[in-house]
Design brief:
The structure is a single chain. By secondary structure, the protein is mainly β. Helix content is about 0%, strand content about 30%. The protein has a four-stranded antiparallel β-sheet, with no helix packed on it. A four-stranded antiparallel β-sheet has the order 7-8-9-10, with no helix packed on it. A two-stranded antiparallel sheet has the order 1-2. It is globular. The chain starts with a strand and ends with a strand.
Length: about 140
C-alpha cells in the first residue's frame, strides 16, 4: 500500500512528493548499510535526517558526521552508497543539536534541500547543487 505525507495530494491524484510504502509487519527490507553504529554513527552525536537533497522528489538520507555531511540518494527502491557532499557542518566542528543545529530546507526555491546552520552568533547556509553542498555563507537574521 502507498500513501502520501499529510498535506500532499493522494496517490492517483496530483503530485505526491514523498510517498510512503507501508508493508505488513515482518516484511521489511534492508536498503543501506551506511549511517549505522557499525560505521561509527551514534544517536547522541550524529544527526541523520531525511530530505530531498537533489530535487528528484525522493527522500534522501543526509548525515552530519565527524568529517562533514554525507548524503545517500534514494533510487525509490534502495539508497545509493553515501558520499561526502560537504566538509562543513561536521560534528568535529561543533555542529550538533546541543549547541549549533544544522537543519535542512529549500531556501532558494529550487526544490533541493539546503543546509541551514543555526549557531549562537550566526546563521550559515550551504545551497544544494544536486550533487554537493556549496560552501557555507553567512546569512543575516
Amino acid at each position: 500500500m502507498s500513501v502520501c505525507l499529510t498535506g500532499l495530494s493522494s496517490p492517483g491524484g496530483a503530485e505526491c512528493r514523498f510517498p510512503l510504502v507501508i508493508r505488513p509487519m515482518g516484511m521489511t527490507s534492508h536498503w543501506i548499510p551506511d549511517f549505522g553504529a557499525q560505521q561509527g554513527w551514534t544517536e547522541t552525536r550524529h544527526l541523520r535526517l531525511t530530505s530531498d537533497a537533489n530535487g528528484d522528489r525522493r527522500a534522501d538520507i543526509v548525515g552530519f558526521g565527524e568529517e562533514g555531511v554525507s548524503v545517500a540518494l534514494s533510487t525509490g527502491t534502495t539508497f545509493d552508497t553515501a558520499s561526502r557532499w560537504s566538509m562543513e557542518f561536521s560534528t568535529k566542528g561543533g555542529w550538533h543539536a546541543a549547541t549549533q543545529t544544522p537543519l535542512l530546507g529549500d531556501v532558494n526555491g529550487d526544490r533541493k534541500r539546503d543546509i541551514i546552520g543555526v549557531a549562537q552568533d550566526r546563521v550559515s547556509v550551504a545551497l544544494s547543487t544536486g550533487s554537493s553542498f556549496s560552501p557555507a555563507e553567512r546569512w543575516t537574521v
